[in-house]
């Protein structure tokens, strides 16, 4: 009998950085898993996964490896993707293609743009990708796209690198030279320095309030670009001077609309095909429109009550869904290991779900 034969049938293979598992106190999740009949096993990314499973679920935060994109990282991701392809019954939280979309801010904003959220005054501020250092061309591009001053420049890569949270606020044409391509330029939305973070775990979500950037206004060529690291502004313990409203401005609170938050979660979950994600929302002063400014794969969940309880619940309900849909389509003669059939089956399932 080998080590693997002794294991219970339901193993959750997981990977995240040691830093993240320590922060989450991940050992406790092992206990929760055992109470629900699962065993939690950390993946050894340097070895074939075949010898480490069999896995019922793969749960991961691989953003930093996907974003690294060097030879070794590519090899690791290839190995994982091959395993997933060869074992179509393994549930993956979350699919790597969905995570890749969220690693690219430009793609992410386009996803939001194409949802129906606009109908309920939830929007993504006007944005454009900046790929060149040619200031004249960039000014033209910004104008054509309708990006207005001030705007915020964000690195293309959204997560998993040291530079991806380095941003700048640009006030005038002179400042356009400070854009560091490849980046996304996005109109700045004044929101009285309050950020709402929506943390999502499957069907559960929680909103927490965080500090954010103060209101900014366009300024003729006299105002210099502000550069900042977002992690020094919008963490629960941040106290940046960039969050202090000017004395002339009243700190009237914006009113967050719980129905809008609910719609954001219900809508984005299916568009993104993600179970573990976070959405940053700001409420525009005066209009009260809700702007989605950032979406993060597997965020920090700081302040999320009973995170592990909700996580195991999410794993179990996603498994139930995927077992049911696979069984249904195997009965109907679909080859669920064939990705084109998988797409067809998903489309069919979606149409069935509309009637349930
Ligand atoms: O560690 P935290 O709590 O700051 O979590 C980070 C998230 O913060 P949040 O929970 O939204 O306040 C953070 O969200 P923001 O982009 O800061 O809004 C990222 O998701 C970050 O991921 P990565 O390290 O860039 O891959 C997250 O970092 P990881 O810990 O997941 O690496
Ligand atoms: N369009 C915007 N308008 C106003 N403030 C913004 C906008 N986009 C980002 N911010 C501010 O910048 C911070 C970082 O931006 P975000 O897109 O969330 O990047 P990160 O992935 O680094 O968290 C936010 O927490 C918010 O304070
Ligand atoms: Mg953010
Ligand atoms: Mg982010």
UniProtKB/TrEMBL annotation:
Binds 2 magnesium ions per subunit. The keyword Nucleotide-binding applies. It catalyses: 1D-myo-inositol 3,4,5,6-tetrakisphosphate + ATP = 1D-myo-inositol 1,3,4,5,6-pentakisphosphate + ADP + H(+). Its EC number is 2.7.1.134. Residues 11-98 form the Inositol-tetrakisphosphate 1-kinase N-terminal domain. One of its GO terms (biological process) is inositol trisphosphate metabolic process. PANTHER family: INOSITOL-TETRAKISPHOSPHATE 1-KINASE. Kinase that can phosphorylate various inositol polyphosphate such as Ins(3,4,5,6)P4 or Ins(1,3,4)P3. This is Inositol-tetrakisphosphate 1-kinase.
């Amino acid at each position: 009998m080998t080590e693997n034969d002794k294991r219970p049938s339901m193993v959750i293979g997981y990977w995240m950085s040691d830093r993240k598992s320590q922060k989450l106190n991940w050992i406790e999740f092992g206990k929760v898993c055992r109470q629900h009949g699962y065993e939690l096993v950390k993946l050894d990314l340097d070895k074939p996964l075949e010898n480490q499973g069999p896995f019922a679920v793969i749960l991961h935060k691989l953003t930093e490896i996907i974003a690294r994109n060097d030879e070794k990282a590519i090899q690791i991701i290839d190995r994982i993707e091959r395993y997933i392809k060869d074992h179509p019954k393994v549930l993956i939280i979350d699919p790597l293609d969905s995570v890749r979309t969220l690693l690219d801010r430009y793609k992410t904003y386009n996803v939001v743009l194409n949802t129906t959220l606009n109908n309920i005054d939830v929007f993504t501020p006007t944005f454009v990708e900046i790929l060149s250092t040619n200031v004249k061309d960039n000014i033209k591009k910004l104008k054509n796209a309708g990006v207005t001053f001030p705007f915020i420049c964000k690195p293309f890569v959204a997560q998993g690198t040291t530079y991806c949270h380095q941003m700048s606020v640009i006030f005038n044409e002179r400042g356009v030279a400070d854009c560091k391509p490849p980046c996304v330029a996005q109109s700045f939305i004044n929101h009285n320095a309050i950020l709402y973070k929506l943390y999502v775990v499957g069907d559960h979500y929680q909103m927490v309030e965080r500090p954010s950037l103060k209101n900014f206004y366009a300024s003729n060529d006299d105002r210099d670009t502000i550069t900042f690291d977002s992690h020094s502004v919008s963490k629960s313990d941040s106290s940046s001077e960039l969050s202090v409203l000017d004395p002339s401005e009243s700190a009237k609170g914006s009113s967050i609309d719980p129905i809008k938050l609910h719609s954001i979660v219900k809508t984005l979950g299916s568009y993104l095909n993600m179970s573990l994600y976070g959405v940053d929302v700001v409420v525009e002063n005066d209009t009260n429109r809700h702007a989605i400014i950032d979406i993060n794969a597997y965020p920090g969940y700081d302040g999320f009550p009973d995170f592990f309880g909700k996580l195991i619940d999410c794993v179990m309900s996603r498994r139930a869904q995927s077992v049911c849909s696979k069984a249904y389509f195997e009965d109907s003669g679909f080859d669920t290991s064939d990705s084109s059939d998988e797409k067809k089956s998903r489309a069919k399932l979606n149409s069935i779900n509309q009637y349930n």
